[in-house]
Amino acid sequence: MKGNQALTLSVPLKKNYTVQLKVTRALIYVFLTLLLIITIIPVWLLLVNATRSTVEIQQGISLLPSRYLFTNYGILLSKGLDLPRGFINSLIIAGATTLVTVYFSMLTAYGLVVYDFKGKKVLYNSIILLVMIPMQLSIIGFYQWMSTLGLDDNYLSLILPSLASAGSVFFCKQYLESIMIHDLIDAGRIDGASEIGIFHRIMLPIAAPGAFTLGIFAFVGAWNNFFNAFILITSRDKYTLPMLVQTLRGDVYRHEYGAIYLGLAASLVPIIVIYFLFSRYIVNGISMGAVKE
Amino acid sequence: MFSKVRKNSYGYLFITPFIIGFLVFGLYPVVNTLGLSFTNFTLMRGDGDFIGLQNFKRLFADTTFLTAIKNTWSLWLMNFIPQLGIALLLSVWFTNTQLKIKGGGLWRMMFYMPNLMMQSAVAALFFSLFSFYGPVNQFMVRAGFIPEAIDYIRNPAVMRGLVVFIQWWLWFGQTTILIMAAMTSISVSIYEAATVDGANSWQMFRFITLPLIKPVMIYVLVTSLVGGMQLFDIPFLLTDGRGSPANSILTNNIMMYMRFRSSQGHIGAAASVGVMVFIMTTFVALLIFYVLREKHDSVTEKA
């Protein structure tokens, strides 16, 4: 914005100004690079240390990988950490949560966008309000209620709450409004399609990119969720990946640094891969969820 | 016309799963938590009696509760302010047409990456990095910054700083993306008009950019606050799960969890912590939303 002054400056001063701009720009790049290093270095050290032996790790820092990846994995197995099991458990929960979140949020948002019914405005305002209310703080009542229903230590108690995900409905409503073609719905009706059929066969395919973006967020959120699973799941064989990761802090692994780092790396790598594959969807999706007035 | 009205009742069909899901998994747990907070329910007995406001009286008499509230607020504020500051700075730089910073999308993408990392793994990672024989001590001693290794994990100030840093590290990229999206949507012609009127860059930031990105800033503020008041994973897993050292990183949710997992399983008492924090957070969130929103509306009306 500083540059706007250049419009009124005479030529010799303008040259001075370009030098100043170049210096500013160089300083900004230095700052950004420092910020980038801070962002990446913890994760990089983690990935590198997962391939190094405990002795190497104790000898000093390295930014280059070593060759003890499989040794470390062997140590993890010998200590009884069932990483593949945790991986599958997390995959089941995250996959199911994603499907439930995307389908039912789209369904609800479609109902709000397409139809005019009594109480619609109240419902919509409640949804906006719900985004701002810390529902997680009712976890104690939730836990006790799930025990009563016999759903504690059951994945359903982690998956089913996604039926009513206020933030996701809000996202879907914003998205559907931006792509909605009402003529298509009328055309579907004329062709004799049912209302739910129109949603399934006409609207969902059109909304696929938005559904995909929401799906990534739902998946990552469920994959990383620690607190709820930590409260609700008690059987060792049902432990999710974040719960297993937490056990790495225990005494059993006291001096097995390489193995610890490998355990942590295994839980982060899938997300890093997803991110680099779909970063465009993710970065654009973040701002779509924000309140726009 | 008649058919259109009839079709509209299909709306109820579409929203029914949401309503049922909300009543069963959202609203009832809140009501249940509130109910439990008036009882001495323990998991051991599987039962409890109504004891009125006893839990709340005990809670306010307990200085650890005040410590937890104070900690949660200060940990949130200390990471939120630099988060917003960096986000504003980066957004101004990336959207500035004179500076022409290259690779804006790529920078943003990298800065956002930590946000997707599993927080329990991040906590364990920083625990390892800052452990007595960990990489941080190795680096600091070898580079000569400190004479001998420091036991960071037992130092309250360091641990508090570390929680703040990790939270900042996790969230500054997301805040930057949101603020930048808001700044990008401002029409260039407004700035051009201001330039013609002789406004300098600070004036343009103060009187054009800031008011126009206000709705998004409120969104960022409120969602960050609601998340911050429930801070759990990082401080819980960074030390012993009790907010050590010296309760320095004991947060609301850690306290609630400690009641929940106490030997008897005092879920009545745990619920009262949840209720208090719920009321406090909701009140402040709605207050912020209401106060800032009103002002915003009156400004646009005048303009």
How would you describe what is shown here?
The complex is a heterodimer of chains A (293) and B (303). Chain A contains 14 helices and no strands. Chain A is mainly alpha-helical and 293 residues long. The longest helix of chain A has 39 residues. The N terminus of chain A is likely disordered. By secondary structure, chain B is mostly helical. In chain B, helix 4 runs parallel beside helix 8, helix 11 packs antiparallel against helix 14 and helix 13 runs antiparallel to helix 14. Chain B is globular and about 75 Å long. The C terminus of chain B is likely disordered. Classes of the chains: A mainly alpha (293), B mainly alpha (303). At the A-B interface, helix 1, helix 4, helix 5, helix 6 and helix 10 of A face helix 2, helix 4, helix 5, helix 6 and helix 7 of B.
How widely separated are the two ends of chain B?
40 Å
The proportion of residues forming helix of chain B, as a percent range, comes to over 70%
Oligomeric state of the chains present here? heterodimer
Q: What series of H and E elements makes up the topology of chain B?
A: HHHHHHHHHHHHHH
The most extensive interface between chains reads:
A-B, 97 and 107 residues
**Binned strand content of chain B:** under 5%
Q: What summary fits the major beta sheet of chain A?
A: none
- Unreliable segments of chain B (pLDDT under 50, ≥5 consecutive)? 296-303
* Tally of individual helices of chain B: 14
- What's the overall geometry of chain A? globular
Question: What is the mean pLDDT of chain B?
Answer: 89
- Proportion of beta-strand residues of chain A: under 5%
